């Protein structure tokens, strides 16, 4: 359910990229503005341990990577993760030999 417009209280708002838009008054606001200040993301690894920005993790299962012939191997260590919430993935990181990557928290464990 999308929030009503904070300017005119219209219920016809829609989402465009990371913004909400009101078609009645043309007001645009950030999706983060409508969370009432609570922007923290609670992400847990495969074992139920809570992850935080800057943590180090290990991949617990071989993962196929689109556009690469080699998979991410089980046991690959990743340092300095960043938590995100893009609807599909929870973790943004850089992996040696692969580059920038987004991962799901269900395939990693905290070190």
Automatic annotation (TrEMBL):
Transmembrane segments: none annotated. Residues 43-110 form the Protein YjdM C-terminal domain. It holds the Pfam family YjdM. Residues 2-30 form the Protein YjdM N-terminal domain. InterPro entries: YjdM, YjdM_C, YjdM_N. Belongs to the YjdM family. This is Alkylphosphonate utilization operon protein PhnA.
